[in-house]
TrEMBL record:
It holds the Pfam family FAD-depend_C. InterPro entries: FAD-binding_protein (IPR028348), FAD-depend_C (IPR049516), FAD/NAD-bd_sf (IPR036188). Residues 285-481 form the FAD-dependent protein C-terminal domain. It comes from Atopomonas hussainii. This is FAD-dependent protein C-terminal domain-containing protein. Gene3D superfamilies: 3.30.70.2700, FAD/NAD(P)-binding domain.
Length: 540
């Protein structure tokens, strides 16, 4: 297989133009081209007011590959294609009686369990929340009726925190073994659109993701795995530095010497339990801020110029960073084109925001977190759980500022910059459900964060015209941008630094940030568990 990079074609090119372009680029006859697949398609919008082009990476099969590669030996855009196939590390023997446990069924736990099931290890998945269908009902009850179910919400339940999301599937992690392709491939097999395999910024949106996740659960069960909902792990069984099992909230004990802990960033009671059990955890940096909303048309215009609204490009996104004079970095986070701001608390009397969208991304507003990086040394000293406590304090205050009924505090951007409480909306309507309460957001975050965001918004307005328009809306607050702790693991074995048999993984353990990277980390720990179980079995 040969890979061609940087092959560009006009946005509206007919489907067969790609074949022609390949043949022309490789200087071969049509008959010599056996097959081709699109590996990646991105677009270059730097000349948005003259021409936007699709840029392709194509993998091709030709009759005489060796001769062709020799002919293009000096051309860095024509090279042998890397092998991106996934190869499992082994298969469980029939005589293996131990079953690995996976705690948490977000993207990390889902991929860990799927891989273990595919390798024949028959994992037992324990998830504190409910299955997709019942979880969706509970989550909507908060958004529509202000009724929170603490064990079943945006954070907890089948599919994890990413279920009600934009379903963005890209990440900046290094991925030399192409685990990300495996994640995408499994999503497509379970019903995600084929295009996620090749578009440069794929997304699947909330509704599609729910179907995909339940199809993957069916596969795990069909392969001999077990998925138990409403099964919260509340304690660990430890013997002489070795994990031997977990205890559930209903008192049941399950034994295993291989437990993957894929908790997500919101399982604060479980972090506390781990600390009590002396599992090594440490505080880590995260970010706090607000969600900002603008009309999507404003972002499309700024990003795509005369191509705004072009059906091939969809709703435009953005990524912004500003280094404030007080030394803080302010950046956009989890941008959701054509989406809504959502109530994302899992705890009573707390308010926290996030964003989601459907596959179509056709809601009126664009939203993103505008957040400030914070770190334990400077901002929340005081031990491994100080970041958790810091988040809790801010979320409780946001609840009060929102009126103590799960509405969120909000302010217009112009008023926020001028330090004046907001009283009425302009043209931009907030999408947050169950609703927002206008006022002053300054008391909701530490002064250094407010100062940095005040400085950043006009700076962002220079990059995206209208970003700092007076009636854009800030909704508070963002606190769960990533985990406030790291459950540190050994680099080689991926086990906890001081508890053998415990495999901390995914976002909650501080090893992922986003759906794709959590899925990739799930694959890595599944492989580590498989290797260890095979080695232990062979020794006995
Ligand atoms: P999680 O998805 O948080 O899953 C952890 C699971 O563990 C949960 O289901 C929880 O119930 C369970 N659990 C916790 N403790 C226990 C226990 N003691 N016993 C049993 N089960 C337990 N990322 C993107 O890449 N793209 C996006 O578009 C995107 N949008 C998002 C939108 C929203 C609203 C939110 C909240 C997040 C979004 N994210 C997005 C972030 C993404 O969801 C997370 O990075 C990802 O889900 C982390 O995966 P994870 O498996 O590590 O943890």
């Amino acid at each position: 297989m040969i890979r061609i990079t940087e092959l560009s074609l006009p946005l509206d090119h007919p489907a067969d133009a790609l074949r022609e372009a390949i043949v022309t680029r490789l200087q071969i006859s049509a008959a010599e081209l056996i097959n081709f697949t699109v590996f990646k398609r991105s677009y270059d919008a730097r000349k948005k007011n003259s021409v936007i082009l699709f840029i392709y990476i194509i993998d091709v099969e030709v009759r005489d590959e060796a001769a062709l590669l020799q002919r293009f030996a000096d051309d860095k855009h024509i090279r042998p294609a890397p092998d991106t196939h996934y190869y499992p590390v082994g298969h469980a023997p029939d005589s293996l009686s131990e079953r690995p446990i996976v705690v948490g069924f977000g993207p990390c736990g889902l991929f860990a369990a799927l891989l273990l099931a595919q390798m024949g290890f028959k994992p037992i998945v324990l998830e504190r929340g409910k299955d997709v269908r019942r979880r969706t009902k509970d989550t909507w009850a908060l958004w529509r009726k202000k009724t929170l179910t603490p064990e079943s919400n945006v954070q907890f339940g089948e599919g994890g925190a990413g279920l009600f999301s934009d379903g963005k599937l890209y990440s900046q992690i290094k991925d030399p073994k192409f685990y990300g392709r495996k994640v995408m491939h499994e999503f497509v097999r379970a019903g995600a659109p084929e295009e996620i395999m090749y578009v440069s910024k794929p997304h699947i949106g909330t509704f599609r993701l729910t179907g995909v996740v339940s199809t993957m659960r069916e596969e795990i069960i069909a392969l001999g795995g077990e998925v138990r909902f409403e099964s919260k792990v509340t304690d660990l069984v430890i013997n002489d530095g070795q994990l031997e099992g977990v205890v559930l909230a209903n008192g049941e004990t399950l034994h295993s010497r291989h437990v993957i802990l894929a908790l997500g960033h919101s399982s604060r009671d479980t972090f506390r339990m781990l600390h009590r059990q002396n599992v090594f955890i440490e505080a880590k940096p995260f970010a706090v801020g607000f969600r900002i909303e603008h009309p999507q048309s404003l972002i499309n215009q700024a990003r795509l110029g005369k191509y705004a609204g072009h059906p091939q490009l969809g709703a435009a996104d953005y990524k912004l960073v500003h280094h404030a004079q007080n030394g803080r970095a302010v950046y956009s986070f989890c941008m959701c084109p054509g989406g809504t701001v959502v109530a994302a608390t899992s705890e009573p009397e707390r308010v926290v925001t996030n964003g989601m969208s459907q596959y179509s991304r056709n809601e009126r507003n664009a939203n993103a977190g505008i957040v400030v990086g914070i770190n334990p040394e400077q901002d929340f000293p005081g031990g491994p759980l100080a970041g958790v406590e810091f988040q809790e304090r801010l979320e409780s205050r946001a609840y009060e500022l929102g009126g103590s009924d799960y509405c969120a505090p909000a302010q217009l951007v112009g008023d926020f910059i001028r330090g004046k409480a907001s009283r009425e909306f302009g043209e931009v309507e907030p999408s947050y459900k169950p609703g927002v309460r206008l006022g002053d957001l300054a008391p909701s975050l530490p002064d250094y964060a407010i100062e940095a965001i005040r400085e950043a918004l006009p700076a962002f307005g220079k990059q995206i015209r209208g970003f700092d328009r007076d009636d854009a809306i800030l909704t508070g607050i963002e606190t769960r941008t990533s985990s406030p702790v790291r459950i540190t693991r050994d680099y080689e074995t991926l086990q906890s630094l001081n508890l053998k048999g415990l495999y901390p993984a995914g976002e909650g353990a501080g090893y992922a940030g986003g759906i794709l990277s959590a899925g990739v980390d799930g694959i890595k720990v599944a492989e580590a568990v498989a290797r260890s179980m095979l080695a232990t079995h062979n020794d006995t």
